[in-house]
Amino acid sequence: MTQPVTRSYDFICFGDEVPGILAIVTAAREYRRRTNTFPRSLLMLKANSQDGIGGHLVRGRLAYLDRSSVPLNIRQQYQLDEFGDPPAIYKEFLTRVGVVKVSLNPDRTNTILRQMLSEAGVDILSKVDIDSLIMDGYRIAGIKLKRGEVYLGKQFIDCTVNAEFAQHAGVKKLPGYTNLGLPNSELSVTLVFETEGLSTSMLRSLEDTYLRRLTNPNDAEAQRWLNVAAGNDPVYKQEIVRDLYFDDGRLKRMDIGVDYVDIYAKALSIAYHSFRGTKMDLETSGTLLDNANVAILPGTNRLSWNALLFFVTATEAEALARNGAKPTATMLEEMKFVDRWIRSLGATNVRTAAELYIRHAGNITGVATPLPGAQMMAGGVYTAEGLGSFGYAFDARGGIAGIDDRAVEVGAPAPKFKKPLFNIGIRHALLKDIPNLAVLGPASGFDGTSSTAGRIVEYNVGVGQAIGIAACLALLTNRELNQFTNSEIRSVLAATGRLPKVYGVYDAQETANVALFEKLMGVPIYTV
Question: pTM of this prediction?
Answer without folding.
Answer: 0.97
